[in-house]
Amino acid sequence: MKKLTLFSIFCLFALVLNSCKKDELSPPEIQTLTITPVSHNSVTLVGNIITKGKQKIIDYGFIYSTSTSVPDENSGTKVSLGNNPTEGEFSKTLTNITLNSSNSNMIWARAYIADDKGTVFGSAISASLPRPNSSAISPSSGQSGDVVKIAGKFYNPNINAVVVNFQNVKARVISATDTELSVEIPGGINAYHNQQISVTIAIDGAVATNSMYFTILANIKDFSPKTGPVGTLVTLSGDNMPNNSYYSSSIPIYFGNFQANTGNYYSQVLVPFSVGETSDVSVMSNGQRKTLGVFTVAAPQITSVSPEAVLPTQNITISGNNFPTQYDGSANRQMIKIGNGEYQNAGYSSSSVFSYNVPASTPEGEHTIYYRVGPHEVQAPKKLKVLGHQITGFSPSSGGPGKEVNIAGNFIVNTSYYVSFGNVNAYATATSATNLRVIVPTGIDAGKVKLTFDPSNKRILIPGEFDILGPTFTSFTPTSGVAGTLITIKGSAFYQGSGQVIFGTVAVTPISVTENTMIVAVPSNVTPGAMKLSIRTGGQTVIHPNNFTITN
Question: Which residues are 39's β-sheet partners?
Answer without folding.
Answer: 42
